[in-house]
From TrEMBL:
Binding positions (substrate): 126
Alphabetized Pfam families for the sequence: RraA-like
Cofactors (names): a divalent metal cation; Mg(2+)
Keyword tags: Magnesium, Metal-binding
Binding-site residues, Mg(2+): 127
Protein name (record): Putative 4-hydroxy-4-methyl-2-oxoglutarate aldolase
Single annotated GO MF: metal ion binding
PANTHER family registered for this protein in UniProt: 4-HYDROXY-4-METHYL-2-OXOGLUTARATE ALDOLASE 3-RELATED
């Protein structure tokens, strides 16, 4: 390059969801949120609760604070700690790099101390027992004891592609044991409105199943009108 980029670029003042918008997704299963977005929105399934969620109650809702590190890097994540606001969920983008930790127990402890609601990465993590002690909900692709570097260049407060989804800082993250779902900032209110409808449908179906319901009316209709056939 003719001119080298800054080692670290920080953007602390991106739009964030309101407290009411965040509250609308509290204790809502990620599956419901995906249904309210046409069945989409989740990161790749390889990004899972650390340890399968067996030792940490991995549930979190909050604004994404995207740290675009690049492979085998952690400088952006360090910068994210500097501008983090309580309730943020730090998203460490390492571009899917494997065999290197994106964060460990001490860093998770500092995130917890500053009020982070969770940590998401498309890379691996380390120091499992120590992370469990912090209690910080975290999602990653596995474990690796290898160390990252902090050379940059790195950007914080912008966006990155993580787990096949473009995430912008300020998008809403809803995460639980099933995975991580991204609600784009501009669509939050629309998804909330749809979510109420999904919740009603789910509640009605749950009540019917509990009472013994075991039918698939759509299949019966397909057989009746010839779209499906039953053969001996």
């Amino acid at each position: 390059m003719i001119e080298e980029p800054p080692i670290l670029t920080l953007r602390p003042n991106f739009p964030r969801p309101t407290a009411d918008q965040i509250a609308a997704f509290q204790d809502v299963p990620t599956g419901f949120v995906c249904d309210a977005m046409g069945g989409q929105g989740a990161l790749e399934s390889r990004i899972q609760p650390i340890g399968g969620g067996r030792d940490i109650d991995c549930r979190a809702v909050g604004p994404a604070l995207v740290a675009d590190n690049g492979p085998q890097e952690i400088l952006a994540t360090m910068g994210a700690l500097h501008i983090l606001k309580p309730g943020d969920i730090v998203v460490s983008a390492v571009h899917g790099h494997r065999n290197c930790s994106a964060a460990g127990d001490q860093f998770c402890g500092m995130l917890k101390n500053k009020g982070a609601a969770g940590f998401v990465t498309d890379g691996e993590m380390r120091d499992y027992d120590g992370i469990v002690e912090t209690g910080l909900p975290a999602w990653c692709t596995g474990l690796s004891p290898n160390s990252p570097y902090s050379n940059g260049p790195a950007k914080v407060g912008f966006g990155a592609v993580v787990g096949g989804v473009n995430i912008e800082s300020g998008d809403l993250i809803v995460a639980d044991r099933n995975g991580v779902v991204i609600v784009p900032f501009a669509e939050i209110d629309t998804v909330i409105a749809r979510l109420r409808h999904v919740q009603k449908l789910e509640a009605d179906l749950e009540e019917k199943v509990a009472a013994g319901f075991c039918q698939m009316p759509a299949i019966e209709e397909m057989i009746a009108d010839g779209r499906a056939v039953v053969v001996e």
